[in-house]
Structure formats: structure tokens, C-alpha cells
Amino acid sequence: MSANVALLQPPQSLILASTSPYRRALLARLGLAFTAVAPQVDETRQPNETAIALVLRLAEAKARAVAANFPTALIIGSDQVAVRDDVVLGKPHHREAAIAQLEAASGRCVLFHTGLCLFNAATGEARTLQEPFRVHFRTLTRQHIERYLDREQPYDCAGSFKSEGLGITLFARLEGDDANALIGLPLIRLTALLEAAGCHPLDV
To answer: 42, 79, 156, 203: which one is catalytic?
Structure first.
């Protein structure tokens, strides 16, 4: 159970199929009661799978993975990848890989694809979409990269930065419709999906 929610409201409970603290914090902004549940999903990229196809597939797979335990819920699934020059970037997990990612991104543009799914377990309907967001990096010195990583340690983040934190100092320009997508959950598009499902945040 997520600690940052109150009692769930009828007629449908809201489930976030993620253990990401970033996605939990974003969803909490909408003021809706929800429960965060870990989806058991193999996130391995399939042969020749595009970045967009990957995030759409995994967003829906994560939502469906928890549906058996919540057969009447609205379930949110999301997944994100970063792409530079058609190369999909994973999470760095350690300092050396993060240095390599940021050095390669210096002075260039990295495209983030965030997949979003709202799965209605009661009806079996899944609505999926993909939200793009571009990050244009400053020309970064090795010293600034190392200082940034030492201070924020964003090793669990695709692209090796936290845009909601000190990572903003690495950027020359941001380009996209919803900055929340860069953190991991496009709230503008999610609000539209929730409204279509009868769960607008301002109606609860």
C-alpha cells in the first residue's frame, strides 16, 4: 500500500502499477487516492523493437500484471526510455556508466519516450499512448559531470539525471508538452484518460 494516500473512493479504486518513488510523487499531485503495487514484468527489449513500441508494450503489460489482484480497479502503467541517435539508453546503475551517458549527451539532444496505459480491469479496456519529450544538453565539462553525479547520484534514472533536481543545470533547452513526462508520468495526458474513465481529479 502507498503511504501517501487516504481511503480509496468508490466505485473504482485507482492502482499505480509501479514502485517508482518519482511516479508515486507525480500521481499524488492529482490529489487522488491510490495504491502503488509492484508489477512483475520482464522489461527486456524484444529483437528489433522500436523505443515507442517498447514503452507502449511495457506500460500496458505493467498495468495488466496487477489486474488479477484488483479486478475492478483502474490501473495506471507507465514506462520510459531515452534515445540518442537511435540508441536506446538504459539506467546507468553506477557512476562510470552515468559519466559515459552524460559525456555522450553533451551538446546534443536526447529524446525521451514515456508510455502510458490506463487499464480498466472491470471492462478489460486498455487505453495506451506515448508522450515524447526532448532534452537539449549544454556542452558539459567532465568536471561538471562528475560534480553533478557526486551530488545527486541519479543512477536509477534513464539519461543519468534528475530534471526535478540539480539536473536542470545540465540543460540548454527543454522541448515538450508536459514536463512531468520527463520525470516519468505525463499528468496532462493521464488526466484526460482518467476523465474519459469517469475519474477526473476535480470531480472526486
So the answer is: 79
